[in-house]
Amino acid sequence: xxxxxxxxxxxxxxxxxxxxxxxxxxxxxxxxxxxxxxxxxxxxxxxxxxxxxxxxxxxxxxxxxxxxxxxxxxxxxxxxxxxxxxxxxxxxxxxxxxxxxxxxxxxxxxxxxxxxxxxxxxxxxxxxxxxxxxxxxxxxxxxxxxxxxxxxxxxxxxxxxxxxxxxxxxxxxxxxxxxxxxxxxxxxxxxxxxxxxxxxxxxxxxxxxxxxxxxxxxxxxxxxxxxxxxxxxxxxxxxxxxxxxxxxxxxxxxxxxxxxxxxxxxxxxxxxxxxxxxxxxxxxxxxxxxxxxxxxxxxxxxxxxxxxxxxxxxxxxxxxxxxxxxxxxxxxxxxxxxxxxxxxxxxxxxxxxxxxxxxxxxxxxxxx
Length: 368
What we know:
Elements (H helix, E strand, L loop, with lengths): L1 H14 L3 H15 L5 H8 L8 H4 L2 H4 L26 H16 L2 H8 L10 H6 L13 H6 L2 H7 L6 H4 L17 H13 L5 H8 L2 E5 L5 E5 L2 H18 L2 H19 L12 H9 L2 H11 L4 E4 L21 E2 L3 E2 H4 L1 H12 L5 E4 L1
Antiparallel strand pairs: 1-2, 3-6, 4-5
């Protein structure tokens, strides 16, 4: 923990004066030390340890690439709050955590591997590439290619055979409601990134999050389908409110502006043949290194990294850079044993949901 404390002090001191140095530090730290990140300890919240049979799957090349693809879609390279102080949190961390949740509740290798591989085809900067493709409001464009990537991996195929599984068996986690289901229901995917970000954004401690996760079990929801449900209303309400705090971050002016700015930068780099679409399916370190080899794009990258605040207005002034940026709204409304959805029992949370869904994103924003 001392390492993380000292690292936080270091990052705070250089973040405002040297944003490019900070982004480079994050890039190297994330790519080389993901397995040593704070999320090693957080994984034990989901399950005591990684089962032996699962370990080889975590280290295949297709999975290791995700150690250098962040969970915050490039926002973590900026100096925006709350991203400027966050620890390394990679798609690999998230995928392993999601798999451990599924294993904990099902002990089914097929479902567990489907959860592990659900982000295997995610490009560098993740959903910012959805913005690049104009998919702001569903953010599903980056999900394509999962089955094809599993099929084409000789390493994964060799590990699947002894388990009697095929790529088709583990290539679509949407088939398994504990791994994934329809929003705003709770599943392993939403549980993991919510817990991870609740801790990242300092909304609650790992100890507090552990107590909430320990209240969960597999049960039947109002439609008779399997879902991760809470035993206690108090725990469910606490989790729902914390997850809602994350929801506001995901659609905040800063998050949306950063993702759109990065998407524009990547689009221009593609048009200038500085990078290719194939490059986006390598690592963030590689894409950043390629982009910053160009003086002009290095300046743009440094400006992106220095982004520290976002202005908003109903009527933009004459300064350049004003944008209206839509975004997907996601939240979680947990189910409670013998009680139903939190929103049906807790008036305050029901109001939070209504206000969140009614929140307009139609105003102009500009970064500084």
